[in-house]
Amino acid sequence: MRATVAALLRKELALELRTRESVPAMVLFTVTTYVLFHFGLDRDTVEGDLAAGVLWVTLLFAAVLGINRLFVAEHEQGGFDGFLLAPVDRTALLVAKAVTLLCFLCAVELIAVPAFGLLLLGPSLGQALPELALVVVLADVGIAAVGTLVAALAIQTRARDLIVPLLVLPLLVPVVLGASRATAPLLAQGGAEALPGDWLALLALYDLLFALIAYAVFDFLLED
Amino acid sequence: MLTYAPVDADQGVIQKIFYVHVPLAIVALCGFVAGGVLAIQHLRTRDRRWDMRSYVTIHLSIVLAVGVLVTGSIWARASWGHWWVWDEPMLVVFLIVFLLYATYQPLRFSIEDPERQARYASVFAIVAGAFVPLCFGAVRMAQSVTHPETGTMTTSGPGSVTVTFLVSLTGMALLFVTLCKYEMASKNVTSQLRRLRRRLEGGDDGLPAAGRSAAPQP
Lengths: 224, 218
Prior knowledge:
B: 6 helices
């Protein structure tokens, strides 16, 4: 199982390093969205609730782009058949894809969060960074679990591009809710405030629940 | 219900929409969760009848959810003066859940192979069914609760709020079950009729139904 996941993960990362399809597009998308928010809100800087909302909605929409592309190579080039023919546990594909998506999201956020601090955020990002990283990772795990599941669900439908956002956005409402409430005090005007623990607990609960559900039902999406 | 139940001291007659709104909401939520449980049965047994049951339950719950949104909106307008109130958790949860389940039909419709359609729809139903209680908890946590609770209302007049509410809830649940039975019967009869008609025309019995459909075909 571990070897399979490692092999699949190597393949995914090699593919992304060579084609550079997802991550650059997601990064460009986030920066463009910041510009749009600047003009749409007519504000030079944002802070507190508003900053958290702008950041998380942007990251969520960027994640939708990545989720949309997640299984495209498998679908178009017979990767599913190849994987099903191999004598390995099917859950390995779920784990590998979820970790891939997690890597993509972290790579995007490594650029998108500093870019947000540079372009839109009023208060300085510096002191809140460790706490922010914790919230980001917790939210990313949830997005990766749900995103992988929805990507696998939508890839076999005719209207993939429509089904993915329609499914993912309502499913991720609790993540946006928890992440932006947890982030808001970190980005507040007069310096960062304490991290609210109950929202982190909600995010962790969400991650756990959907990781388990994805683990339980993923096999049924692969039999053909 | 109109004459027996006591009149609310603050809200007046409009409060009686409570006896429609809340049972609708509870039955719809339970219907969504039940759809998920039936879908688990389908994935475990591979029996297409479970998929049909799951489909019918979710389908009717979506209809009830529209009812919840409409009655909730009317009640909010009457008692708080706004058509939409963001700090009423039930209403917000229903909007999110409704938006999620609104994708159920398009998802089924966009998968052609009936076997795969049933399997994928079941996966969706399970994920969404688990999402409903989580989402409810999250939204409830986000808001200072202003939702009126049954026990806290000040009332005048004879009769009991609890009894009326329980009667409405039972009625709504029975209505839901009856509608489910009707829809199942209708689906079965339609497919039987189609099969007979095809046989009458001398066609092959094994042909799939003409045109695609979001509904499962037994």
